[in-house]
Amino acid sequence: MFFVAGLIGYLIARFALLKGQHPVSVPLLFWFSTVVLLMGGTSMQVALSSIRRERQLKFRRCLTFATLCGICFCILQVFGMSRLLDSHWATLDGERTPLTGLLFVLILLHGLHFVTGLAIQLYVNWRALRGRYDHEYFMGVRLCTYYWRFLDVVWLAMFGAILLTT
C-alpha cells in the first residue's frame, strides 16, 4: 500500500512540478531489465511446473536461470535507477523538490524489496541444488514463484509510471 501511495504521489508531483520542462529520459537499461525480469518469471513458472512433475534436472536448470536473471535484473536496475536520478537532478538543476524525494524513496523501497526476495531466491536455489525439493515438498519454490510474479507486477507498474512521465 505504501508503494502505491508513493507511486501516485510521484505521478502527481511529476505532472505538477515539471509542467513545461524537458522530459526525463528513460534509461535504455530499463527495457533490458524488464525483458530479463519477465524471462526470470517465466523460468520460475517452468521450474515450479517441473518440480510438480518430478523433473529434477529441468527444475534445477530453470530455477538457477531464474536466479541468474534476478541477479542480472538487480545489476541493471542499479545502473538504470542511478541514471534516472541523475536525469531528474539535471532537469531540476539540482534543486531539491518533493519529486526527487519521492523518486528516491520509491527506488529505495523497490531495491530493498527486490534484494530481500533475491536473497530468499538464492536460499531456495541452494536448497534445490542439494536435492531438498521434490513433487511432494516444494513450498519454497511455490512461494518464490508467487513473489517473482508480484515483483513482475510491481516493476511493470513502476516502469509504466516512469514512461508516463517522460
Automatic annotation (TrEMBL):
Residues 1-166 form the Heme-copper oxidase subunit III family profile domain. The chain crosses the membrane at residues 28-51, 63-82, 102-126, 146-164. The lineage of its organism: Bacteria, Pseudomonadati, Planctomycetota, Planctomycetia, Planctomycetales. It is an enzyme of class 1 (oxidoreductase). GO terms for biological process: aerobic electron transport chain. The keyword Membrane applies. Belongs to the cytochrome c oxidase subunit 3 family. It comes from the Bacteria. InterPro entries: Cyt_c/ubiquinol_Oxase_su3 (IPR024791), Cyt_c_oxidase-like_su3 (IPR000298), Cyt_c_oxidase_su3-like_sf (IPR035973), Cyt_c_oxidase_su3_a-hlx (IPR013833). It is a multi-pass membrane protein. It is found in: Cell membrane; Membrane. One of its GO terms (cellular component) is plasma membrane. The gene is ctaE_1. One of its GO terms (molecular function) is cytochrome-c oxidase activity. This is Cytochrome c oxidase subunit 3. Keywords: Membrane, Oxidoreductase, Transmembrane, Transmembrane helix. Its EC number is 1.9.3.1.
